[in-house]
Design goal:
- The protein is α/β, with parallel strands linked by helices and 351 residues long.
- The protein has two domains: 79 residues, Phosphatidylinositol 3-kinase Catalytic Subunit, Chain A, domain 1 (Ubiquitin-like (UB roll)); 182 residues, no CATH class.
- Helices cover 38% and strands 15% of the residues.
- It has ten helices and eleven strands.
- The protein starts with 13 loop residues before the first helix and ends with a helix.
- The N terminus is likely disordered.
Length: 351
């Protein structure tokens, strides 16, 4: 009698051949959902609502790479899941019915405490004030934020880049602007300076697919430190504006300016020195010169070349060695100009 080959997969039954096993990531854990082979994005939304108790109004599906972020009601509710590119990752963002109920319960409890406190004050009793949390703001901040922060692991001290990205995410002004404009960003990551520097220009930021990914140039050109925090935050405001408007037209610049003003106005920490400020500040690198460009406009797929207004250019990116040499030359030139100015001032006749 022939032995069974246990390593060979068993043939699928007719019922199994008509089933689509879809892996969806939720709270960092993969969940396998079973649907029909011809299931659509609407069918997936219905199954999530039934099995995970996440109502459609709370659902967001981040599908990467492309096509991007989907939320009910879908633009194309008949989009078939088997038409998606192979090996895509589907991430589910949203609060369950229970989580929403818990939040509403906490708000109700808070209101009851406030009513009791007011009643006590009216009765002439002294009540010690207690700190409470604005649950509406907390819920919005959890929704309109950066889902993932990712430094570049192949560069020196990625943990510092992660702290820089966390500082941007937790910036009071940035958080306020994202709540107001209802911006959700799938991934906030750092940019490798060598990959986005040419002999003509260098790019400070990129926004892909209106918030699917935002890249920021955190490090100096020579990889010896980090650029000034306010320059990077200004660049982030620019990239957030691309969540709504792609080209650099009049409407875009008006929105960018509005977001910047909102960030400055709501940054209650600007009056003091934030913890770890000196870790990211590099004297002489807190400027944006004529060769710096925030980006070439919001883009979908492809690659915008640095300092170009089109998606294609003959400009070749600098290698890391070339980028470091270019930065050292710029610093030497700046230092030489400063020395000439000092010598001129010292030799000037007294007035």
């Amino acid at each position: 009698m022939a032995a069974l080959d246990e390593s060979a997969p068993a043939p699928l039954s007719e019922d199994e051949q008509d089933v689509l096993a879809l892996s969806v990531h939720y709270h960092g854990q993969p969940i396998t959902l079973t649907l029909a082979n011809d299931a659509t994005i609407s069918d997936l939304s219905t199954l999530v609502a039934e099995d995970l108790q996440i109502p459609p109004s709370n659902q967001k599906f981040l599908i990467s790479p492309k096509p991007g972020l989907f939320r009910p009601p879908f633009k194309d509710p008949a989009l078939r899941l088997d038409s998606l590119p192979p090996k895509v990752k589907i991430t589910l963002l949203g609060s369950t019915t229970q989580e929403v109920a818990d939040t509403e319960s906490a708000i109700s409890t808070l209101k009851q405490k406030q009513q009791a406190r007011r009643a006590a004050l009216n009765a002439g009793r002294k009540v010690q004030a207690t700190r409470h949390r604005d649950w509406k703001t907390a819920t919005e901040e959890a929704t309109y934020t950066f889902a993932t922060l990712r430094p570049l692991p192949h560069l020196h001290q990625p943990e510092k880049s992660l702290r820089f990205l966390e500082r941007l995410r937790d910036d009071p002004g940035i958080k306020s602007a994202m709540r107001k404009h209802k911006y959700s960003v799938g991934l906030l990551t750092e940019m490798d300076p060598a990959e986005h520097t040419t002999h003509e220009s260098r790019t400070l930021g990129l926004n892909r697919n209106r918030g699917e990914v935002i890249e920021l140039r955190l490090r100096t050109d020579a990889y010896d430190g980090y650029r000034d925090y306010k320059v990077i935050r200004k660049t982030l405001c620019h990239e957030l504006a691309h969540n709504e408007i792609g080209p650099h037209n009049t409407e875009f610049h008006a929105l960018w300016n509005q977001i910047e003003k909102e960030v400055e106005k709501n940054d209650w920490s600007r009056g003091g020195n934030s913890l770890g400020r000196q870790e990211f500040y590099n004297p002489g690198d807190d400027y944006v010169d004529d060769d710096d460009h925030c980006d070439a406009g919001g883009w979908e797929g492809g690659s915008y070349v640095l300092g170009s207004t089109s998606s294609q250019s003959s400009a070749e990116p600098l290698s890391r060695r070339e980028a470091m040499a270019r930065a050292a030359e710029a610093r030497a030139k700046k230092q030489n100009n400063s020395q000439k100015t000092a010598d001129h001032d010292s030799n000037a006749p007294p007035t």
